[in-house]
Amino acid sequence: MVKAGILGGGQLGRMLLQAAINYPVETFVMENDPECPAAHLCHHFIEGDIKNFDDVYKFGKSVDVLTIEIENVNEEALLKLEEEGLRIYPRPRTLQLIKNKILQKNFYKEKGIPTSEFIVTQNAGDIKQNITFPAVHKLATGGYDGKGVIIIKDITEVNKAFNLPAVLEKKVDIKNELAVMIAVNDKKETAIFPVVDMVFDPLLNLLNHQICPADLPEKIIWKAEAIALKVVKDLDSPGIFAVELFVDHDGNVLVNETAPRVHNSGHHTIEASYSSQFDMLWRIMLNYPLGNTENIMKAAIVNLIGEPGHEGEALYEGLDEILSMDNVFVHIYGKKVTKPGRKMGHITVLSNEKQELIHKANQIKHILFVKSINA
Amino acid sequence: MVKAGILGGGQLGRMLLQAAINYPVETFVMENDPECPAAHLCHHFIEGDIKNFDDVYKFGKSVDVLTIEIENVNEEALLKLEEEGLRIYPRPRTLQLIKNKILQKNFYKEKGIPTSEFIVTQNAGDIKQNITFPAVHKLATGGYDGKGVIIIKDITEVNKAFNLPAVLEKKVDIKNELAVMIAVNDKKETAIFPVVDMVFDPLLNLLNHQICPADLPEKIIWKAEAIALKVVKDLDSPGIFAVELFVDHDGNVLVNETAPRVHNSGHHTIEASYSSQFDMLWRIMLNYPLGNTENIMKAAIVNLIGEPGHEGEALYEGLDEILSMDNVFVHIYGKKVTKPGRKMGHITVLSNEKQELIHKANQIKHILFVKSINA
Q1: Is residue B243 a contact partner of residue B232, using CB atoms and an 8 Å limit?
Q2: Do B292 and A326 touch (CB under 8 A)?
């Protein structure tokens, strides 16, 4: 049996291992927390630091093929392992490029891939009056899940800016946010999943739910698909990729960022696609043919986020009501402790009717809350 | 988190654990083989003998709720655990009744549930000339997967009969074999899955594939559903049940046997139903509402059985070709060693067209073979 390693043991690793159960593969996970969501679902759990060279190198030497479920891993170890012949998804050089927002933005620019205007800043002093405001300041490295990103409305707010290498982007006047998942195998064959519409709450400016396929004009969808495919081809690495895009009010489609791994925007594929994003990564790593990305049905996702003011053992308020709804699939990530804003699970809705998806997604938002037992 | 135990670590346990990943539950498995298909997919694997009183009792004392993935477990330990307050699915008394074919057949008779005519035999000498031949002789206990069952064509074959307590049934002139999965929760609410048609190869007399929903006259389907529901209600136990039925050439529907657990005839529900048989058992054990048993699409299953003449490390010949087929889902059970006739996996096909299901099922039978690496 092929020995496959995953760096990181969060919910993405958990769902990868859930998909691995269908295949003959021996699974290895490395993560520093032995109670992480993926720890009990692999053949071999190795307690270790994914940022540490020695830990990652040693782990890599024990497997035939390696992947990541988080970008924040030791790149040097991956480069050495690749040199020594290990198959790694994504390629370490592609991971390096993506992990650094300066390199990533420059890559889009060099390749002629539409993305928002930007300048590279080494410190706050680089932000001058002649910039188009409002702008978004993003740390080159170390940002995650919205951390390391701030909005600078005008020059008076320059004191908020990062004093570390960063990218300053013109803030896009966003009409829609889209995501496109693409699979690439070693033969450079690609399979593209239907485009996802990330629907934001206009008042809270938070992701409300996701709908797939995105119900937008064909021209926009085609642009999104073509641009995402170009990004992934130019990244020149096998693996699975999530390309996040903005659509502005003029119908321009711009790449926001790319993740070189399974991704939150593709979780509906577990039930909605013949081959899920997780299934697809196993097909790539195990040298099987790519799967069928078609939708079985339309789908929506609602993320389950830890409520503000609640920290401690998780309590899923309203779960019974959600489980009594038809066409609804619950995914709880098994994290022992909830924290405000922590991703604790997601709910998938299937329907052939877009209106039913939206209705149920909104219902779920009003019924299900992750609180703590001892609030 | 609820602590849930599974006695047995084969493919049924494996797929139960795959479904458990969606819920907040701490999983325990007991089985004597630490390399069994389910061993690496639970929080706690306990090496132990499921037939041994002390092992089962001790295991049961460590969990909040208990289930089985094989009937062949120590019943006395389960009865004592239940007396001491443990929730067990199915109830130990129901398991006892089902495990003994004499008790099971008498139960059908007493409850007025249609089943083939039978007599109870203590030894071969009980089989007399006045029996209607051909007949099927089934050992009361210890039979499994076709073992402990023989056909006696006429009185001259009586020397083949078992000299242990057994049931001698009139052989049904079978037109169709059906299976009905039913879920029952603690409140005695039931959910019935669409009827499955077990399609046999007329030449080999082996299961060729399964189709769901069964495409038979409504009257037959209604009878099958009504009879299966009566069986399960009369068994008076929460849990998940597979009722296997014969349809004869006169349109009579007769119960063959019942399994008080997740079952091979329900594997298509993983992809084909909103709530699978595995999902459903977790809902029951975790006190969640029952799920939606409707089919998302029609489905077929082909079982992957170890080829004759092949014993050793498994080789899945034709797997690449199967994985390049659309609408096809592969489930390999991760058994290290194949043996002739051993269940090594199954393949599910989804389609809205019955003809496509049959066509693909037959294709798969001609493409995919489980051989051994060193044949």
Answers
A1: yes
A2: yes
- B156-172 tens-digit pLDDT: 888 889 999 999 999 99
Closest CB from A289, A292, A296 relative to B297:
A296
**Sign of the torsion formed by the C-alpha atoms of A375, B2, B3 and B9:** negative
Round to whole Å and give the CA distance between B93 and B332: 33
Tell me the two tokens of residue B146: 């076709």
A337–B contact, CB cutoff 8 A: no
Our CA dihedral for A2, A7, A10, A13, rounded to 10 degrees, sits at -20
How far apart, in whole angstroms, are the C-alpha atoms of residue A252 and residue B238? 57
Asked if B169 contacts B136 with a C-beta cutoff of 8 angstroms, the reply is yes
**Low-confidence stretches of chain A (pLDDT beneath 50):** none
Q: Are strands B312-317 and B239-248 parallel, antiparallel or unpaired?
A: unpaired
Q: Is B83 helix (H, G, I), strand (E, B) or coil?
A: helix
Residue B223 CA to residue A339 CA, distance in Å, equals: 52
Q: In a mutagenesis test of the B interface, which of A17, A29, A41 is the best target, namely the one with the most B β-carbons within 10 Å?
A: A41
- The 8 Å CB, 24+ separation contacts for A81-88 are A81/A56, A81/A57, A86/A60, A87/A186, A87/A285, A88/A60
pLDDT of residue B146: 65
Mean pLDDT, residues B252-265 taken together: 97
Phi, psi of A151 (to 5 degrees): -100, 130
Q: Which of A321, A323, A368 to mutate to test the interface with B (most CBs of B within 10 A)?
A: A323
Dihedral (C-alpha) A111, A114, A117, A119: value to the nearest 10 degrees?
-20
For chain A, where are the alpha helices, taking DSSP H only?
A: 11-20, 53-61, 75-83, 92-99, 101-110, 218-235, 269-272, 277-285, 319-323, 354-367
CA A221 vs CA A197, A205, A248: distances in Å: 10, 23, 13
Q: Which two tokens stand for residue B176?
A: 């169709």
Spatial distance between the Cα atoms of A178 and A257, rounded to a whole number of angstroms: 11
Please name which of A37, A35, A28 lies closest in space to residue A55, comparing C-alpha atoms.
A28
CA distance A284 to A232: 15
Tokens of B9: 């670590």
Which pair of structure tokens corresponds to residue B238? 């929460």
List chain B residues with CB under 8 Å of A283: 323
Distance of CA A51 to the CA centre of its chain: 19
A46 Cβ under 8 Å from any chain B Cβ:
no
Taking phi over 0 as left and psi of -120 to 50 as alpha, with beta for the rest, B8 belongs to left
pLDDT confidence band for B375 (50 / 70 / 90): low
B11 CB-side CA count, 13 A: 20
Mean pLDDT of chain B: 95
Output the six-digit token pair for B242: 């597979």
Instruction: Please write the tens of the pLDDT for every residue from B283-325.
Output: 999 999 999 999 999 999 999 999 999 999 999 999 999 999 9
Best of B21, B270, B279 to substitute, by most chain A Cβ atoms within 10 angstroms, is B21
CA of B200: how far to CAs of A276, B209, B279, B362, in Å?
32, 7, 28, 12
Contact assignment for B289 to A320 by CB distance below 8 Å? yes
Which positions in chain B touch A294 (Cβ < 8 Å)? 326
Residue with tokens 């909104």: A362
Distances (CA, A) of A2 to A144, A262, B89, B301: 32, 20, 36, 26
The CA distance from B155 to B132, in Å, is: 10
First to last CA, chain A: 46
Q: Which two tokens stand for residue B369?
A: 């073979």
Name the residue among B21, B320, B324 with its Cβ closest to that of A14: B21
Residue type, B346: H
Percent of chain B at pLDDT exceeding 90: 89
Length reported for chain B: 375
